[in-house]
Automatic annotation (TrEMBL):
This is Fe2OG dioxygenase domain-containing protein. One of its GO terms (molecular function) is metal ion binding. InterPro entries: IPNS-like_FE2OG_OXY, IPNS-like_sf, Iron_ascorbate_oxido_reductase, Oxoglu/Fe-dep_dioxygenase_dom. Residues 178-298 form the Fe2OG dioxygenase domain. The keyword Repeat does not apply. It comes from Chytriomyces confervae. Keywords: Iron, Metal-binding, Oxidoreductase. Belongs to the iron/ascorbate-dependent oxidoreductase family. The lineage of its organism: Eukaryota, Fungi, Fungi incertae sedis, Chytridiomycota, Chytridiomycota incertae sedis.
Length: 367
């Protein structure tokens, strides 16, 4: 693996957006913070995010226990039309052709019930996980929702003319977002772990000989992604697609901080002003890496505004570079391994939740 430079992302403390009050000095800080968020997401599509209580949460022991007890209890995943909860063994998901050398655990809102829509349903926690650890995992979900909502409120302040951004930062929409957003615990292994002899539990014997990666190059489909990791390995591309000139830069994790990525849907709603960065995960030094990846979504029933049309946007004088970038987002790509089966949905005719459900189905892999 060649050496990679690091990318230096802005570090933003979003505490003032988490604890609103109407005092005037606070308002100035809120405005400055909101503009800093917008600037970072417009320039890099990402930033490092801290809050006053960043160092109070050590989630990695809980992450380890979630994965460990899933394996010892032998729990698998429940997959239902794009809804995924529970333990995902190595090789069972990929955003591209590579074998992603990682295992994962997927969970969401603890109050979510199956009847609401395709993205809601009960979590599958391993029976031998202690009540205390389960509570820590659930509290962490709440914390991620609160921080993501604070950031979305900042964006609504920085972009007052965008009606959907205003709406998504409201209490009602934040509640709907919380019901369908998703937390993924990932453990990335040294690539040698994918050789069938020493493959971890639940990996089927015959894994095809394809490229190994931690996570294939992709953009995140949703609104915002919050990532917390104990090791480097996440990299952001210098170009919107993988081309020979692409330079990959490593994001160095700051203990306690979230790395925040703009998502494809947010990029769409801001006509490409906010970037959804192309990123991947590589194993830099044969080590294990754990990350908590929180995908924050808009409400299930959200529809893209009727005026959203890539061709029309081009003609309407939006910066063509920004519009050009939108076409390459993973949200619009067909990520199925077998593209001949079924059909790809059109984001202009179906709501966000139905569309994302079909995206999750498309990255499921069975070897
Ligand atoms: O584990 C990470 O650092 C990021 C993973 C990621 O990009 C994803 O799951 O979408
Ligand atoms: Fe991602």
């Amino acid at each position: 693996m060649p050496p990679f430079d690091s990318i230096s992302l802005p570090l933003i403390d979003v505490s003032c957006l988490l604890h609103h009050d109407s005092d005037v000095a606070q308002n100035e800080l809120i405005r400055t913070t909101s503009n800093a968020i917008l600037d970072a997401l417009a320039q890099y599509g990402a930033f490092q995010c801290i809050t006053a209580t960043s160092n109070n949460f050590n989630i990695f022991d809980t992450a380890e226990l979630l994965l460990h007890t899933s394996k010892t209890d032998g729990i698998g995943a429940v997959k239902r039309g794009g809804f995924v909860r529970g333990y995902i063994g190595m090789g069972h998901e990929s955003g591209g052709a590579a074998l992603e050398v990682k295992e994962g655990f997927s969970y969401g809102d603890s109050e979510s019930c199956a009847s609401s829509n395709k993205l809601t349903g009960e979590n599958i926690f391993p029976p031998s996980l202690s009540a205390n650890e389960k509570e820590k995992a659930q509290d962490y979900y709440e914390r991620c929702c609160a921080v993501a909502r604070a950031i979305s409120q900042g964006l609504a302040i920085a972009l007052p003319d965008n009606p959907l951004l205003q709406q998504f930062s409201s209490e009602n929409d934040a509640r709907l977002a919380k019901a369908i957003s998703l937390l993924r615990v990932f453990k990335y292994f040294p690539y040698s772990a994918a050789n069938s002899d020493n493959a971890p539990h639940s990996t089927s014997a015959a894994i095809p000989h394809v490229d190994r990666l931690g996570s294939s190059p992709h953009t995140d489909w949703g609104y915002l992604t919050l990532i917390q990791s104990n090791e480097a390995g996440l990299q952001i591309a210098s170009t919107p697609t993988v081309v020979p000139e692409t330079v990959w830069r490593t994001v160095e994790p700051i203990p306690g901080a979230f790395i925040v990525n703009g998502g494809d849907y947010l990029s769409v709603l801001t006509h490409g002003r906010i970037l959804s960065p192309l990123h991947r995960v590589v194993n830099l030094d044969n080590s294990f890496r754990t990350s908590m990846v929180f995908f924050y979504y808009p409400p299930y029933d959200t529809k893209v505004p009727a005026e959203f049309d890539l061709e029309l946007l081009n003609e309407s004088g939006e910066s063509s570079k920004a519009v050009e970038r939108l076409k390459h987002l993973s949200l619009f790509q067909d990520q199925r391994s077998d593209k001949s089966k079924g059909r790809k949905l059109d984001l202009k005719t179906v709501c966000f939740g139905d569309y994302i459900s079909s995206k999750w189905e498309s990255v499921s892999r069975d070897y």
